[in-house]
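hey can u check if this looks right to u? its 383 residues, i copy pasted from the old doc so theres a chance i mangled smth
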Amino acid sequence: MLCRGSSLLPQWDAVSVPYRRVSNWTARAWRPTLLAVNATNETPAALGYRLPAEWEPHAATWLSWPRREGISFPGSFERVLPTFRALVAELVESEPVCINVCNGAHEAEARAVLKDVDLSRVTFYRIPTNEPWCRDHGPIFLTRAEEPKLGVVDWDYNAWGNKYPPFDLDEVVPTRVAETLKLPVFYPRMLLEGGAIDVNGAGALLTTESCLLNKNRNPNLGRADVEQRLRDFFGVREILWLARGTEGDDTDGHIDNLARFVSERKVVAVIEENRTDENYEPLQENLARLREMKMDGDKIDIVTIPMPKKIVRDGMRLPASYANFYVANTCVLVPTFADPADEIALSILRDGVPNRRVLGIDCRELIWGLGTLHCLTQQQPAV
């Protein structure tokens, strides 16, 4: 596999493109024959698999290390590296960390940034990626009681609605991880990013219409088709639909910027308290929907969390949100923005996610890539 930045791939001026992803490539359909494990065409749900909640025990957290020639942090690559170091330093105190790198030189760069971190808890894998957003391009792991207890779903991937190719390396990451770990892999034949869904581990899934029903994802699938695939490949029963996302969010409304399960029945939902802000109405609509929703016949417990103040850089509104937290085994890592609401958000999450340390990580540079901590991480459940 070629790394992006190779002379055989198109070159891009990162400084001139204030986005994390750009160009006009289409994804390659790369599928190894040795992992044709789903030969019976049985779905993961039929085989007893389910998608665990994020707070269930992890065997590891997966990351994809950013690339200097990438487009995620135009003009800001060096300034964002301390955030990656802080993220890994906190994670290794909680669980092992697996990091995808392009090659030996890329691994050496990562090791230099992490030189004072306990690297005995870090494993590097030669799985190249275009960009670092492992939540969206990485493997989504399923579990069940019988062997093989762990499996991978490889959803199709087109860089958030074909907005920012090249994404040929990112598109094949789940199968390459499954091949490396010798795990069964399942292909739903539907586009989906990991940040577009959130589950409670007990049969419910949260998502948004603006993302999963967007014609830039699956133009030939209706709501019923999408819901059936979610049930078949995640082992869920109830699909809970919010409406849309916030300004500046190029994902078309990923749920991990809007509302997150923190227990089987409790959801933390982001609200904008300034009525004149452009995010006030969409977030109020989402909150109203949540208040009407039921799971197994009972209403959801809802806790609201404020938005940070509006962040604008080079004329762009950035999608900063405290909902983009990551729940690791012993801690909850929360993006902060040197904002008066930081401590309010941390306090709300300390109440909402007991028995874990709730820690803030400054993401003022990271949000220039249009994502933060949850966007970078993907959990591997313990089995």
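Residues 77-91 form the longest helix (15 residues).
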